[in-house]
Structure formats: structure tokens, C-alpha cells
Amino acid sequence: MSNCSHNHSQGHQETMATVEHATTHLEAGHMIKVNLTTISEDSIYREMQYHEAESQETAMVLAMESLVVAELLKQRAKTIGLSVDEHEQFVETLIEREVVQPKATDDDCLHYFTQNQKKFASPPLLEVKHILLACAPDDTAARSEANEMAVNIVAELKSNIGQFSALAKQYSRCPSAELGGSLGQISKGQTVPEFERQLFCCGEGLVESALESRYGVHIVFIAHKEAPRPLPYDLVADKIRDYLDTKVRNTAIAQYITTLIDDAEIEGFEFEEKKDRQFFHA
To answer: Which of 83, 189, 70, 196 lies closest to 130 in space, CA to CA?
Structure first.
């Protein structure tokens, strides 16, 4: 919707701050050994910058996990004679050579389609008009005032919906005011999420309660609502096949890495038991 609807050094400083904070949660000199190969404390700190997490402890665990898996893959690649490079381009070759990756059959795809038909439909379409009473998201007083004004405008529209365009030109602070508040046809993904979530739950006609977004308070009239239409299998078969192949591939890779972990001697780190774990996406 329209108005209605790193600096490298700084990033490096932020990373260093993260590492300094993290040191309070890692014992000095801590290291991990993977089949007698050492992963140092410094390596763990450096790796942490690539793992966003809710806490430093979680980021540290993710960093450790990533380094252990990378070392296991590198060791396995060397064992079977692959050339190992620092950019880990060998990983794809290793996976292709050692991981069995079954492909989805026509029957698999058709079965998935049959069991998940609600996922395969054209997006709903709405023909929408709105009046935006603009106010900042953190301005409580302005929001309250806008909501009170919206109640009065909705009351006017209930008595005469034909004056919507005139009221839009009078009150709306959206460029669409010049079009009588018309936003045209809207499908999902065309407006801001908080507005969209409310909008697509409304039925045709005047929406009696104002909808709020980061831009302000919206008085909405839905002239037409076109429900999603089921898509035929032929139109989505390739997408289903790609999805199933990717899902099977990721599961097979996770199982392969789990086997490497089980066969390895790892000191200083223990993997948690997690069902359907994805170590990485190749």
C-alpha cells in the first residue's frame, strides 16, 4: 500500500560486542574435538556472528553445532578422496555421491495434492475502498481521536453509503482519496501485514469496525470479494514435485549427518535429540 497502506566497521564492532558478552557464558579455553581435530574457542566466537538467535547461549550452541558438522563433512570428504576447499564447494559433491535422494513419483504428487487441496487455490481478491485517518503508531492520543472519528464516519456511511467517495476526499490522508478512496483490486501480499490480516477476514460491504495499521485508522468498504478458486492438479504438479523432492532431500541429508555424528568421537559438545532435525540446507 502507498503511504496509506551497514556500515562494515559498525557491523564489526557489533560482532565484537557480541563475542565479548558471550565470553561470560563459555569457560576459558573451551574447545571441541571431532575425531581428534580441535575446534578452538576462537573459532566458536567467530562463527557466532553468522547465527542469529534469541540469546547468546543459543547462538553459541548453533555455532558449535555448525562447526562440528562442517568438520565431519570435511573429514568424510577427505576419506573418500575429495578435494576440500575453504568455501565448502565440496559439500555438494559429497552429498550427491553419498546420500540416496529418492524422487517423488506421480502417485506421490497426486496423493499430496489430494490431501492438501486447500493449499492449492487462487488467492482471494477484494475490491476495496478506504478512508485513512492518519496517525503515528506510537501516538496514543491521536489513535484514540482517530478511532472516535471513525465511529462517527461509519455511522454516517451506514445511513448513506453513497457518500463514501465524498467523505474519502474530505478525511482520507491517502493518495487514493482523489479516487474516492478506491484501492482497486487487492490480493494477499499487496498491503502491510497487520492491515491485510484483518481485511481478508471481512465480508462484503461496509466494515463496521475500523481497522488499524502502522499508518493509522482505516474505514473500509469492500465492494466485492472473490473467494479463492481451486487450482487444477496439472497447474501445480511441478511445484508439488519440487516441494516433495526438496523435503526428501533435506531429510536424507539430516539422516546422513546423524550417521556421521553417531560414528564420530566428539568431545566438548553434545547434540540434542530433535525429531526431523535439519542441520543445513544444501
So the answer is: 196
The tally of CA atoms less than 13 A away on the side-chain side of residue 105 is 3
Whether 54 and 94 map to the same domain: the answer is yes
* Residue of 221, 173, 213, 210 whose CA lies nearest to 192: 213
CA neighbor of 280 nearest in space, from 242, 247, 260, 253: 253
Query: How many domains, the chain?
Result: 2
Give the single-character DSSP code of 75: H
In this structure, are 207 and 133 located in the same domain? yes
How many residues does this entry show for the chain? 282
pLDDT digits (tens, 9 = 90+) for 197-211: 999 999 999 999 999
DSSP 178-189: GGTTEEEEE-TT
**Using CA atoms, how far apart are residues 86 and 74, in angstroms rounded to an integer?**
10
Same domain, 134 and 88: no
Place of cell 559429497: 94
Q: Which residues contact 208 (CB under 8 A, 6 or more apart)?
A: 154, 158
Query: How far apart are alpha carbons 16 and 42 in whole angstroms?
Result: 12
pLDDT in tens, 84-133: 987 778 999 999 999 999 999 999 999 999 999 989 999 899 999 999 99
Whether 180 maps to a domain, the answer reads yes
Cell of 27: 569457560
Residue 10 has pLDDT above 60, yes or no: no
Let me know whether 221 and 254 are in one domain.
Answer: no
**Around Cβ 76, how many Cβ atoms within 10 Å?**
21
CA distance 73 to 65: 12
pLDDT at 234 over 70: yes
Q: Could you tell me where the beta strands, DSSP code E, fall in 136-200?
A: 182-186
Residue range(s) defining the domain that contains residue 93: 8-101+245-267
